Amino acid sequence: MKKAEIRKIVLAQRTQLGEKEFLERSQRVIETLTPLLTFGKTIASFKAIPHRNEISLDSLEGNFAFPRVISATEGSMEMAFSKTFANSAWGIPEPVGGAVVKPTDFDIILLPLLAFDLKGNRVGYGKGFYDRYLLNCRPDCLKIGISLFDPVDLIEEVESHDIPLDIAICPAKLYDFR
User: Fold this and answer.
1) Which of 78-92, 97-111, 164-178 has the lowest mean pLDDT?
2) Using CA atoms, how far apart are residues 141 and 150, in angstroms rounded to an integer?
3) What are the angstrom distances between the C-alpha of 123 and each of 12, 15, 59, 71?
């Protein structure tokens, strides 16, 4: 399937999830993810966008930095340690203040996903912020995608700048692409 078609389908599936099913799926993902978050590692995470039914990772413990947009025009972002958040113009919780973390300092990056395929390719919201950011991370930085749904067989239109996942976690299982 093409990325635009996948986005449309998955966004519709998310809106159809009942609260109980959403919470159960989220809990299974968090239970699978937690053992991978080794104490002492520097981790890039994300704040869930409530109106998009994203999995909240707020219950996790660790040394987390969060993304904020530097330039929407250029599609650039940075990660910062912060306990204070404010919604951006798009309704995305972003850190307010806090120390900026260099991309090369991360051991693990948690990526919000709409979908992924059996090769570790991923579909996000289509703006490329994470692809541009991941280019500057260390090659050994573990890229873990978080999904509410099982993988699709194949994502068409994978481009040379698309950076695949090392691991994807969905409610049913963990997929290791390394």
Assistant:
1) 78-92
2) 24
3) 15, 17, 25, 21
Mean pLDDT of 156-174: 92
Any residues with CB less than 8 A from the CB of 10 and at least 6 apart, and which?
114, 115, 123, 149
Strands 115-116 and 122-123: antiparallel
**Can you tell me the distance from the alpha carbon of 87 to that of 124, in angstroms, rounded to the nearest whole number?**
19
CB within 8 Å of 47: residues ≥ 6 apart: 56, 58, 66, 85, 92, 93, 94
> What is the rounded distance in angstroms from the CA atom of residue 33 to the CA atom of residue 138?
21
Cα distance from N-terminal residue to C-terminal residue, the chain: 23
Q: Please name the residues in contact with 51: beta carbons below 8 A apart, sequence gap of 6 or more.
A: 91
Taking the model in full, what pTM does it have?
0.93
